[in-house]
Specification:
Length: 421
């Protein structure tokens, strides 16, 4: 790495940890609801259908706002969007804390969902902008844990907070945490010579691509940025066969993962497994992502390649899903452990390699919006198709397991064919 690059990039660990802490605080606000859902239904006189919107509104917001958020990130830069996300989350949480009706609470959750999709898209972009090119995989491996950690913190801490402070206290405390951790992002997530201009925010992905191709990010970086900014953006990039293959793999991954997270606890309980144990087994892959994500990211940096690791992760998803949706006893644990240690390395490989798949790196910001739209669609399809596969009596578990196995394997084939490093 050149001397200029050493001066240009900050400490990647501080950058990644600051982003992770903020992202975890944001994700915690998403997962504060499921564990106290019964309490909220009673307090706001909500039926099950109405209460389900407290979580599904996040998916809906993600589908609607993914593309516009990518465009906003291109215009204003990822760091500015993260600061905006903190402000939006604080406002949404405060509205929720003082809600007097179920509709008002659902609307507040929608506002929180806007902040969530901002962070989903702009977090990876911030890693790519501020971390040195040879540390992007490692930094992304740390960042990619934000949803996993948020689900764990939200699931374990919320019941105690609710008992001690009530509904209002939970909402306000988590809002305060978001505001506190955005300070870390403001302080640590920046270039050594200060925050970049709006132009450099927009076109940093193009600079990194040129740097990886052997063009030094030196005094001429500003000229390169200007050249990229002047070029006409072609959205046809997202419809090229190679890019579509990449998107399909991530779609398949999210379908399989959501099917397992949503329906494997029910299958286990039908086998006589205690609900607490079934809940732990089904979330074990997310917990093991704490190991898988940084490991995959670090290996990608050392190898200088993402594709072999991406293939390994996807190859595990289908068979592991089959075990967790049809197996019993030890097979359930085997499926959960392998999915966590191998399959949950997929997100970091996807985020790290995405710029290499785009034929026009200057589309990175908008492209991240497209990628997160694919993620939201995959999560929606995973929960929408699975009940249909289970049939009217919800007893066709072998059908569901085989379907997820096939989807996972097709996704693996798709990433094998896709051309990237």
């Amino acid at each position: 790495m050149s001397e200029i690059k050493k001066q240009r990039y900050g400490n990647w660990i501080l950058i990644a940890v600051a982003l992770l802490l903020f992202g975890t605080a944001i994700a915690t606000t998403q997962f504060k609801v499921p564990v106290i859902m019964a309490n909220l239904m009673e307090q706001f006189s909500m039926d099950p259908d109405g209460a389900s919107w407290l979580m599904s509104i996040f998916t809906f917001v993600g589908i609607v706002l993914a593309l516009p958020t990518g465009m906003l990130a291109k215009q204003f830069g990822p760091k500015n969007m993260l600061v905006a996300a903190a402000a939006i989350m604080a406002v949404g949480s405060l509205i929720g804390a003082f809600s007097t009706s179920s509709l008002m609470l659902i609307i507040s959750r929608g506002i929180e969902g806007v902040a969530f999709i901002f962070v989903t898209i702009c977090g990876p972009l911030a890693v790519q902008k501020y971390a040195a090119p040879d540390k992007i995989g490692s930094a992304t491996g740390i960042w990619a844990l934000w949803v996993c950690l948020g689900s764990v913190v939200g699931g374990t801490l919320t019941p105690s907070l609710f008992s001690a402070t009530g509904f209002m206290g939970v909402w306000i405390i988590y809002a305060i945490a978001v505001v506190v951790f955005i300070v870390g992002v403001i302080v640590f997530v920046k270039l050594p010579d200060g925050e970049a201009s709006a132009a450099s925010e927009v076109d940093i992905a193009g600079i990194e691509a040129e740097a990886e191709a052997g063009v030094e990010a030196s005094a001429g970086a500003g000229e390169i940025r200007a050249a990229h900014a002047a070029e006409k953006v072609s959205y046809a990039t997202f419809f090229k066969p190679n890019t579509l293959l990449f998107f399909f793999t991530f779609l398949a991954f999210n379908m399989v993962l959501m099917a397992v997270l949503s329906f494997s606890p029910t299958w286990m309980q039908l086998q006589g497994i205690d609900p607490t144990v079934s809940g732990f087994i089904s979330t074990l892959p997310m917990l093991l992502a704490v190991i898988a994500s940084p490991t995959f990211g670090s290996l990608a940096d050392r190898l200088g390649r993402c594709k072999p690791l991406y293939i390994i992760g996807m190859l595990a998803m289908g068979p592991c899903a089959f075990l967790m949706l049809t197996g019993s006893d030890a097979m359930l644990w085997v499926g959960a452990v392998l999915m966590g240690l191998l399959g949950l390395g997929v997100p970091v490989m996807c985020l790290t390699s995405f710029n290499g798949v785009l034929a026009e790196p200057k589309l990175a910001s908008v492209g991240m919006g497209v990628l997160m739209l694919v993620q939201s669609l995959g999560q929606f399809l995973g929960t929408f198709i699975s009940p249909m596969l289970l049939g009217p009596a919800s007893d066709q578990w072998m059908t569901l397991g085989i379907a997820m196995l096939i989807i996972g394997l097709i996704g693996t084939l798709s990433i094998v064919v896709c051309k990237f490093k």
